Each structure stands twice: as C-alpha cells, then as structure tokens.
Amino acid sequence: MKVLVLNGPNLNLLGMREPGIYGSGTLADLQRELRDLAGSLGVEIDFFQSNHEGAIVDRIHQARADGVAFVIINPGAFTHTSVAIRDAFSGVSIPFVEVHISNVHKRDAFRHHSYLSDIAEGVIVGLGMHGYGLALRYVHARLSGASTR
Description:
By secondary structure, this protein is of the alpha/beta class. The chain contains 5 helices and 5 strands; from the N terminus they run βααβαβαββα.
C-alpha cells in the first residue's frame, strides 16, 4: 500500500505562516506524525511539497509509475486555480483525498470553490493537521477492503 502525500504552495511555511489559521506545527512535524501513523498501519508513505504547479503535476504523473495506490493532497492555493492538477489526476486515475487545514468555507469567498473536490474520493476541511491523519486512516481502510461507510 503506497500512499503519496502532496502539499502545494506555501505549506512549507507551516508553523510560521498565519499560525492563527494554520497552527504552530511545521511541515516536518506533520510528516513525522504521518510517518509514525503509516508505520503503525503498515502503509508505505512518501511526501512531496512544491510551490510550483508543474512540479506537482509531474509528481502526480510519476505516482502511477511508482505504484502509488492513493494520494492525499493539500493543493493550497492551487485548489482554486489549477485545472492542470485536476487533469493530472484524471489522467493517472489514482484516487485521492483532498485535505485543507483551515475551514475554507469560513474564509474568503474565492476559497469556497475547488477544482478537485468533485473528483476526489473525499474532502476534509477545517480540522487542522488532524485532517491528514484522518485521511490516512480512511485510505488504509479503503485499501484494506474495510468498510468506509
């Protein structure tokens, strides 16, 4: 069970950027927690973060060749702008969960639209970094054949 966790623009600034919205945990903290959880679940996990849309698209394409079974993605601002990331997911046919640390529906109106949500397996918003762990638990259950309903 290979899972890829993708993080988009500015998520490398976690812990420094608007801690009132995104919390004080860093991207390294998040990766450490997810690596521990993945180990306990028996899931192989890999991480990628980029501030560049093309690099994210390239990593999604590479995921198929790498045998990735599921992606967890926080596309950051690309959520609201990237048809390219949407098309990359459609092109590789790898299921994914969309995660947002903040509740995007309580923020600026332009953040209410996602180019990914309607093709995602599920969307988790507003639960802080805990949303990633919930997504990983869901992915594990889904890939193990356990009921997710």
